[in-house]
Batch of 2 targets.
Target 1
Amino acid sequence: MAAEYEHRDRCAIVGIGATDFSRNSGRSDLTLATQAALAAIDDAGLVPADVDGIVRCSHDTVLSHDLADAIGVQDLNFWSEVGPGGVAPAAMVGQAVAAILSGQATTVVVFRELNGRSGRRYGLADTAPDRVGGAGSYDEFFHPHGLLSAGQVFALIARRHMAEYGTTREHLGHIAVTCRERANANPAAQMYGRPLTLDDHLGARPIADPLHLYDFCLESDGACAVVVTSTERAKDLRQPPALIRAVAMASGPAPQPGMMYPVLMRQTITELPARHVAETLYRRAGVGPADIDVAQLYDCFTITVLLELEDWGFCKKGEGGPFAASGAIGLGGELPINTGGGHLSEGYVHGMNHVLEGVRQVRGTSTSQVPGAQTCLVATTPLPPASALLLRAA
Amino acid sequence: MSRLRPVDDDLDTGPFFAAARRGELVVQRCARCTAVLHVPRQYCRACGSWESTWEPQPGRGELYSWTVVAHQVHPAYPTPYTVVLVELPDTGARLIGSLPGEPALQVGQEMEVWFEELAGGVVQPNWRPLGPETDQSHST
């Protein structure tokens, strides 16, 4: 059993890089990826010739060797990809750790890029086909009835949570407002300088009721990248290393197939695979929820955060709403979350901006720094399976 | 633009739509241990059997959740409309349906199936609230 824990603290994130986040980057996916990767490599005090591994997300249009070619990697000895989509980022860092500890690479760039607003928008349905589904997608059970987007799936989840536990729209509003407050302090956030009140949230137009406008993340153009290397090597580099205490991926039993829609057939829809990721990550890291100083929780929608608060054990099942409304998730609360503004108010880079913000917290350089933060949870735990990592100050 | 039609001849899910064309609502079960195989697939992970049957279901279920779609994401689906998630008794299988507009609904209320004919002979089960006028005429 001990072998399972051998990656503990042995690798570190030593560089972070991001482009601006916008509604229209005016640049290609390759340009965005290149800019983020070069920024991360430079932040680490390295040069592209030092890089020998690249990990991408299955939703990227840029391939690993596209980026290797673009930045001038001399010989790409390791590449890998994780998906689907937003469940990938922590697991992508995990791939880098695995490559380094197994001797397949020494210095790995992990990146995610998307023109998610000006290009392919995940909030819109694909209008090309007339016949939908088949071939293992199971879309034939969902799309013809007009269930066509992730927001609509999470709206069904939210309604059920409201029915089972008495969760309210106001509870969700506290999550939106909290993320907005952090973005208001972050000049890189798309919602910098644009405050949001609880009344704004409650009065906003419905998108897929019970979820309204501010329950949804910001479709964004942008890219993020990090550089991972061994903790030993990290000592000689420019930045204080963010130690990767542990990583975990988990599906839980009977995750259901497909990209997203069949999750509605799970025994319960008000619990995310986050519960299983949490169990594995806490065990591998040797910590529990009380040891987490600050958390970056995947926030495609407010309801996703509410479920994560429960499934990560920060409060009891069903109490995510009152917990969020209590001020616990604010700066100065017992569990400050999404300190860069998150997907709801910084930008939507499919979980990778959460990894970068996690590194800033343990470096002590966040625009909403949690004083003395030693451990930061980065949970990329929507659906269907999911992943997470725990970062620690050196 | 016309509404999306399901692929109804998939190797794993085709029999569900073939039954709908006959006016039957079916759910797949393992022929050996009777585990529910939903969404449909051939192999039973519970007992290892590859044999399954398509079991006719009563045409009623319970409203498990719903959402009123107010923001249009597809040209063939003008808003508002309501997507319902219905849980079947006995099997616990859940199916999606849709209703026009934004009717008053409540989690747990009884729903009944109806068979929606789409272009080209494609038929899919759909769901509506069980009303007093349909209470006796239910035939599936």
Target 2
Amino acid sequence: MFQLTCVSHGPALANPLPKPLEHGVVAAAYAARAAAMAVFNPELIVVFAPDHYTDIHLELVPPFCVGLQCNAVADYGGFAGRLNVPSELAARCARFLRETDIDIAVSHSMKVDHGFSQPLHNVCGGVGRYPVLPICINTTCNPLSPFRRIRKLGEAVGAFARETGKRVAFLASGGLSHHPANIFPQDLSGAPDRVKNYLMHGAESGDMTVADWHKYLGEQTVLGGRSVIEGRRTAKDFRINREWDERFLGALTKGDYSVFDSWDETDIVREAGVAAMEIQQWIAAASAAQIAGVQPLVVDAHVTTVEYRLSVAVAHADPLPG
Amino acid sequence: MKLTSFFADGRERFGALRDRSVVDFTSHAAGFRHAAGVGLGSVLELIEAGVEGIAFAETLLASYDRDPAGFASYSIDAITWRTPVLRPSKLCCIAFNNTANSGRILKGPKHPALFTKPASALIGHLAAIECRPEYGRVHPEPELAVVIGRRAKRISADEAYDHVFGYTIHNDITSPTMRDEDTFHYRAIHPRDGNPLEIEYLESWVSYPGRYKGSDTFACVGPCIVTRDEIPNPHTLTVTCHHKDMLVTEDNTENLYYKVPELLEFITRYVTLEPGDIISMGTALKKSARGGAVQNVDLNRFGGPVSVTIDKIGTLTNTVAHLNP
């Protein structure tokens, strides 16, 4: 039996300042998914989420990576703790994927941030509550993988999930439209040296520790909130684009994920921001769930208020009857 | 949704009523925390979680409706009922809040009169009201009770319902004997009118309700909390009180003198209300067609059971236990 949950994540989502009027809608949608997860009581959760330069830096960027062991760090909006990763099963997943022509990387010591830990905390009751298979899809550092490969990855994971014979929940973390390009620059030329060096080499650069980086992200989050309060930045600056979101959600609910194969990264970034590419996490998870077997996907909430500095959505697909 | 707390199978639990069963939420909620870090492991925590708590509980109940096999559920005949919120920070009760009282008040305030009861006085549905010989007369007072959902301090009447989580029943057990014993007719000391450095004595009355309203088991509350969405207007509800099989009072909450919005505005000017707190709206005391009054029901002399029924909420029944001095 399988289930799918797709949610946005974001530092400002955990502690929105300013808090939008629509926060109750979002919080209720998360809580409803938490209840559904509790009822489903998964034997395994496969999480698709990105890293935000906590573990992966530009000197070596795997397109996708499965963690055989994993710890969540205490970043702004994140929840620290050891993920309950069944290592042997994770290794078996990696072998299965490679035999299916998906050359996934592995990490024997993965570190994840709020991209993973926020939905695990909010939807699953904690990072260590259930056995988790963490799959990090790079949606942060250029170049990204084409959508067709993401769909194929998801389908292969779905096929693996079926083979486990377990009750598996697929959890996607990311999106929708938003543009934190000042924090995660695609072009390093304008970034301060210490940030540039950290993004390239991580703490090895000697300019910033991981803790410094998380502090920097927290400060940037607070500054982002202040810029909204003071009216210096608007939804347009964050490329929050309701129309684009609805195009994505509309296509997703139709259930033919091959339509995304032709979606173009350049167009998406122009219309919906650099981090809108996190929809790849949703497409991978939805593809996995579809192959494994779930009911049609339903959108529970979609809020495009500027206070979050991102477009927030929650969606799910229930288990098949019986 | 009707939420309650109960004891079954060797442990404390909470859940929602469905027909003649209680659907247990305890195991599904264990360990979950809403965004602000509060758990969801009790009725109080669900209330504190606000819209998240409601959404969590509604989703659990919808899942039960689709597939009951995924839940533990208990017959309502097989549980020990607790008060829905086990230990609210306080019960705030409104005295003389019925239009029928106006002819009885010889002198009183021109605003709501408020007293509080301790959480240690609480008992749930079907629990026994403890009566001891020294309590003298002990009578029931059937009341609609408001359960607070969000902290409220100096709120306006317009905002009041935003702070209401739901409604329950309070049988405000009262001992008029102890009230008489704990009432002082005395000379109060005041600064002398016109000369604040001197004093004068003024004849006065004061009564302390610690015993006659706050003794153990004197706050029967339950059997459940009905969420606000199911009772859009709390001032259209019939309230009846039965002693044994006799209908004692039959009233309607439209007869409450002060209504929920103005009461919450008044109370929160002085007292901050916390999630789970109970506001008892005042006694429904219109006599039934057969006559009598709640004051005629001496539980210490005649025993129980005593029941309070309110539309859309249910029936709260309590027995009486006669204890030694």
